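Narrative of activities, Objective 1.

The group set out to show that a structural description can be obtained from nothing but a protein's sequence at a throughput compatible with the screening campaign. Below is one input-output pair from the validation batch, recorded exactly as produced.
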Amino acid sequence: MVSCEFNPTLLSKWKSKIYTYSTSKDKQDQIGRTRNMAAGELIFEFPEWIAGFREKYRNTVLSTEEDQVRAVLELARSNIEEKTGGPFGALVISTKSGKIYGCGINRVVYSGSLFHAETVAIWDAQNVVGTYDLASSSKGPFTLVCNAEPCAMCVGALHWSGISTLVTGATNQDVQELGGFDEGPIHPGWEQELSKRGISHKKEVLRSECQTLIQDYKAKGGVVYNSIVKGQEGLAKV
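Output recorded for this entry:
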């Protein structure tokens, strides 16, 4: 049985039973799973540098979409430079206050294929406010800000997260053509489906800057972590 008990915390604490910031070699194997963990626990570890990012933005009000995407780009760029994951970042921000409640970076190579920036940011925010439904929190409504449009998995996660607004930079086409990532079988009407559930989408915010980050990641030999089923090699670009 996996333990995912929520631990409500003050925003200033930024830490819970589930999340720690250790990256010590004696605690992690090659892909980042914690060794000798207690039976039944699911542990996700942020890299240590992210504590500095959180501290920097602790009292910052990100009132414009451009400022929000710039902060996400800083997060994603640090993830590349620190060699702790892919070129994607995400933040969950209170639409009401402009403050950050959830922080996410892509940790696929180190923690597993479920740990995309969007899902990590949503999980982080849900843990901070103490509920699986962000729409029910008095701190909201909440905006999910990403430097690229979500893949098929993350589009699905949005539906049940309680997020009210999605802000993105690069498009899915940018991610596939510039980065070589497989975004999966995204429903052609995914934006309309979000709208039906009361989730609005503001897209292509600072798109050029977001495109450049993805291009730089690939040019530097960053891992393109597509997993291709045998016999379906033509479905994704690598």
